[in-house]
Structure formats: structure tokens, C-alpha cells
């Protein structure tokens, strides 16, 4: 009975604020406020408020919520331990075997192989430029500024 009275008062206050907002020519905001204001009365008329009040003050309901919470925590705890340890002994052995097979024994070797041309037929590497040639423009700028 108290819940219905409180919800009705909240709805009436919200409708009053919506009326003031509409008077100020903000019709979109006023209609949104009116919609929000009608929700508590709708919840009272559908019986949701009565059900929630009965559930909130029921010891049986709170024990049920406690058991659900304990089950949820146990589930999360077992998942965390399972991820950390890798599951059963069979699963760990299978994971190690799969990991050994996943890595190629000669992973550092090129995957395309040596190719069909012999080493002598390959073009020689270009000789690297002398360090003096690389810094010639920098030296010119430094000389220009007297350094």
C-alpha cells in the first residue's frame, strides 16, 4: 500500500514537471518527462511493485539469492583455476604435444628453400657506399655555417 502511494506521488510530481517544461515551449523534453513519469504507475498497476516488495522482505527469497551468488562465485573460481592450471593431466599432456608439433624444427631456415640457381649464379651484393659520401651534404652545411 505504501509502495503504491509513493509511486503515485512520484508520477504526479513528474507530470507536474513535464507540464512546466511544456509551458516553457520545450515539448520534446516535456513528452519525454511525461513518459518517464508514467512508468511507476504502470509498474504498480501490473503488479511488479507488489512482487518486488514481497521478494525484498522474504527471507526465503534472500536465501535463494545467496545460493545463486555462491554458485556463481564457485563457477567463476573453478574457471579461473582451470585456466591457470590447464585442466586435467590428459589435457596438459595433449597441450604439450600439440605445442611441440606446432613449432617447426628448422624455423630459422628460410621457408622457400635454397632455390634452383646455384650460389655462383646469384648477383653479387652491391658494395656499400663509403661513409664520407653519406655525410658530404652534412659537411657542406657545417662548412657553410663556419663550423
Q: Give the proportion of residues in helices.
A: over 70%
Q: Specify the structural class.
A: mainly alpha
Low-confidence stretches: none
Mean pLDDT: 81
The helix-strand sequence is HHHHHHH
Into which percentage range does the β-strand content fall?
under 5%
The major beta sheet can be summarized as: none
* Total of DSSP H or I helical runs spanning 4+ residues: 7
General shape? flat
Taking Cα atoms only, what radius of gyration do you get, to the nearest Å? 39 Å
Please report the distance between the alpha carbons of the first and last residues. 94 Å
- Total beta-strand segments: 0
Describe the protein's topology.
Elements: H1 2-23, H2 27-46, H3 48-56, H4 59-85, H5 89-102, H6 131-134, H7 136-144
Helix pairs in contact: 1-2
